[in-house]
Amino acid sequence: MINQIEINNYWEVIKYNYDQIRYAEVKASIVISIYSLFFSLAYTIDILDSENTYEIDFTSYIDIIALIIVLPGLYYTFVAVSACVRCFLPRLSIATKKSPLFFGDIGTGYNNFESYLTELDKLMDDQDEYHKHLSQMIFVTGKIAHLKFINVNKAMKSLLTSLLFYTVFLIGIFVL
Q: Which has more confidence, 130 or 63?
């Protein structure tokens, strides 16, 4: 038999997992925002550059070196943005039983309030089954948080790598 303190502990773990999910999504949003700022700045500099200081026409070896430097930056930009998208839209293939506690199952598993209420009351009266549903929620939210953090960490590493390549590119363009 599960007591109220144990139930509260389960809900605290679920809340913690949801907080981690939100935190990963905030970090992914920041990565996207940094790219937006960087490319907006680059576009603005391009517009303001009336002398075409860094015009690339591929007639010299310096332009080819610049392209070789910028291509990995573009690759890592693609990796970072796609990892951020995967962070926002995780795809899990976890088979779980339908639960009246999970919002996705509530929205898709019940046609009306009466059938939902009957199922919820039945679950709340059976402490062992309630414990299983809470454990299932902890498991699923933990898996989602883990997947999101894998993606956001990949995005952050790719962001730093791409910005390094872009910085080297810009220094090379303006110095050479």
A: 130
